[in-house]
Each structure stands twice: as structure tokens, then as C-alpha cells.
Amino acid sequence: VQLQASGGGLVQAGGSLRLSCAASGRTFSNYGMGWFRQAPGKERMFVAGIRWTGSSTYYSDSVKGRFTISRDNAKNMVYLQMNSLKPEDTAVYYCSAQGRPSMVLTATGEYSYWGQGTQVTVSS
């Protein structure tokens, strides 16, 4: 099972980036998927999560209204559109997938699979 994240980079404050995550090795269309981020010296934190139907999404308060998570089950892909980026959004972003049905999307312990991470750097 592999999750391959891409789309990170360097952007100025106020700019946008779109992260993509390609899942392979199994089908995740029945399970929740999420994005987390980890800044240097800090623990990995929840950013956004989406249920397998795509009808329910969840966001941390720090990104609500600026980030949008979406998924394409036919392609086994999940996306994170990030707008109005701030320097405090700088972190390594990880996509993740649940390996079993779960009502909880916000906790790292609810995810079984993790991508390698993609760096997002927002300059002021």
C-alpha cells in the first residue's frame, strides 16, 4: 500500500497550492482519508478529513474557510486545495488513509496508512 503526496512548494503569503495524494495497492473508496501537517519541533496535527462518500468534510479551526479537501474515488485520489496561505501553514503535509471504518477523522491513531510527506513553505 502506498500513498504518494505531491504539489508542495514555496509560495508567498496569500498564495495558493493544491496538494494531491495518489493511493495504490488497495482501494480506499470505502474509508476516510485525511491530511495532517507537522512543523519543525511540533507534533503531527490534523488539517482536514473526508468521509468515503465525500459528502462530509472536517477541518481544523486554523484552516477552516481557506482549505478544501476533496476526493475522487474512481481515481483513488485525494486533494487539498490551500488558499490564502499564511507563514504559519509552513509544514510537511502528509496524506493518510484509514484501513477500517471509523467515525473519527481527526486523530492520527485512526489512520493506518501514511504518505511520505510534501513540504509546504509560505514566505511572508
What is the helix tally?
Answer: 0
Average pLDDT for all residues: 94
**Alpha carbon gap, first and last residue:** 37 Å
Please identify the structural class as seen in this structure: mainly beta
Strand content: over 45%
Taking the sheet with the most strands, its summary is: 7 strands, mixed
DSSP strand tally: 11
Q: Using the alpha-carbon principal axes, give the shape.
A: globular
Low-confidence stretches: none
Task: Please trace the helix and strand order, writing H or E for each element.
Answer: EEEEEEEEEEE
Computed over alpha carbons, the radius of gyration is 13 Å
Question: What percent of the residues sit in helical stretches (DSSP H or I)?
Answer: under 10%
How would you describe what is shown here?
With 124 residues, this protein is mainly β. Helices cover 0% and strands 48% of the residues. The protein has strands spanning 2-6, 9-12, 17-24, 33-38, 45-50, 57-59, 67-72, 77-82, 91-97, 113-114, 118-123. Strands 2, 4, 5, 6, 9, 10 and 11 form a 7-stranded mixed sheet that branches. Strand 5 and strand 6 form a beta hairpin. The chain is globular, with a radius of gyration of 13 Å. It starts with a strand and ends with a strand.
List key phrases describing it:
four-stranded antiparallel β-sheet, mainly beta, 11 strands, 124 residues
